[in-house]
From TrEMBL:
<dbReference type="Pfam" id="PF00403">
    <property type="entry name" value="HMA"/>
</dbReference>
<keyword id="KW-0479">Metal-binding</keyword>
<dbReference type="InterPro" id="IPR036163">
    <property type="entry name" value="HMA_dom_sf"/>
</dbReference>
<dbReference type="InterPro" id="IPR006121">
    <property type="entry name" value="HMA_dom"/>
</dbReference>
<dbReference type="InterPro" id="IPR017969">
    <property type="entry name" value="Heavy-metal-associated_CS"/>
</dbReference>
<feature type="domain" description="HMA">
    <location>
        <begin position="1"/>
        <end position="63"/>
    </location>
</feature>
<protein>
    <submittedName>
        <fullName>Heavy-metal-associated domain-containing protein</fullName>
    </submittedName>
</protein>
Length: 67
């Protein structure tokens, strides 16, 4: 599982855009958004660098949490 802090994800529309961007990279991944903490986690066979790039390109630069 990969977890990102996404500080500018503030509403349901942002959460949908983030989810869509991440699923564009990993269509079968499980994406969970925590708006209160402004975090998103992605489970499954994930490409962390590809996910980070997708977040940046969607306008939601995120910082990977943990290793």
């Amino acid at each position: 599982m990969v977890v990102f802090s996404v500080p500018n994800m503030r509403c349901g529309g942002c959460a949908r855009a983030v989810t869509a961007a991440l699923r564009g990279v990993e269509p079968g991944a499980e994406v969970r958004v925590d708006l209160e903490r402004r975090e998103v986690s992605v489970a499954g066979g994930v490409d962390a660098e590809g996910l980070a790039r997708a977040l940046r390109e969607a306008g939601f630069p995120g910082e990977r949490l943990g290793a």
